[in-house]
Amino acid sequence: PILTHRHLGAQYPVTCVGHADLVDDGNGNWYMVVLACRPNQGYTLLGRETFLAKVTWEDGWPVVNAGVGHLEEVVTLPYEGQPSDDVPQCKTYTFDTPSLPLELLTLRNHRDHELELHAEEHIVRLFHRCDSLKDCGEPAYLALRQQHWNCEFETSFIPHFCKESDCAGIA
């Protein structure tokens, strides 16, 4: 491999490096977009994140972060524009549209009849399934990927149980 962190050990801050694409920015600069994890207390809460590495060419072969030997925490890019602060810091889901927002995820083989959107009440209703999250089945599940190390969320949650063995919660 032309890029690995295997030699740095499992305790290194960036692990599971791989699955990369080479990118030419059109100005003669080459980069590698690569997936990797940043474990926190043994867990990779954000999954495999996208990292960027500089690439140079030697004898027709790509060299990633020449002289460094690993992914760097900060990569400086040539950029002539102005940075934007237009990134929303807070997102509210009102469920007032006929379909779920694309960034909300369901688990496995979600079927439309297993949830209802009630636009006038601003709620989404999930219908009970016998499967739990630890089963290989198809539990009633709606998710939003965690995108930042620090985040807060708030929701109203009203479970309706049919029998004692039913369970519901936020995962």
Automatic annotation (TrEMBL):
Membrane spanning stretches: none
EC number(s) reported in the record: 3.2.1.-
Single biological process term from Gene Ontology: carbohydrate metabolic process
Gene3D superfamilies membership: 2.60.120.200, Glycosyl hydrolase domain, family 43
SUPFAM superfamilies assigned to the protein according to its UniProt record, in alphabetical order: Arabinanase/levansucrase/invertase, Concanavalin A-like lectins/glucanases
Keywords noted in UniProt: Glycosidase, Hydrolase
GO molecular function, one term: hydrolase activity, hydrolyzing O-glycosyl compounds
Key word Hydrolase present: yes
Residues annotated as domain Beta-xylosidase C-terminal Concanavalin A-like: 94-170
Enzyme class per UniProt: hydrolase
One Pfam family recorded for the sequence: Glyco_hydro_43
Signal peptide: none
Family note: Belongs to the glycosyl hydrolase 43 family.
PANTHER family: BETA-XYLOSIDASE, BETA-XYLOSIDASE-RELATED
Protein name (Swiss-Prot/TrEMBL): Glycoside hydrolase, family 43
